[in-house]
């Protein structure tokens, strides 16, 4: 396995658990929230250090300029260019929010 494949698996597992955590919280299943939070804590140990929101914003702005994006219609093009740069180092939903804010 390559490091890239490992990051893909870790990122997918992290996302699944974050989604589960949200669902369990909404359902008030605190027993399951605790279990999933412990799993998240373990997974995060194996991920690269996460980028700060400021660092991400810089990458977002640079990528928007690189691809010549000017509106939300360019969202897919920007996301496609950004995600390989931040793989394993940032949450996709946060990136999506930052890109969306910059293109609005």
TrEMBL record:
- Which Pfam families has this protein been placed in? YqeY
- Top-rank taxon of the source lineage equals Bacteria
Q: Which InterPro entries did the record assign?
A: Asn/Gln_tRNA_amidoTrase-B-like, GatB_Yqey_C_2, YqeY/Aim41, YqeY/Aim41_N
Q: For this protein, what is any one GO molecular function term?
A: carbon-nitrogen ligase activity, with glutamine as amido-N-donor
**Protein name, as recorded:** GatB/YqeY domain-containing protein
Q: Which organism is it from?
A: Bacillus vallismortis
The beginning of the lineage is: Bacteria, Bacillati, Bacillota, Bacilli, Bacillales
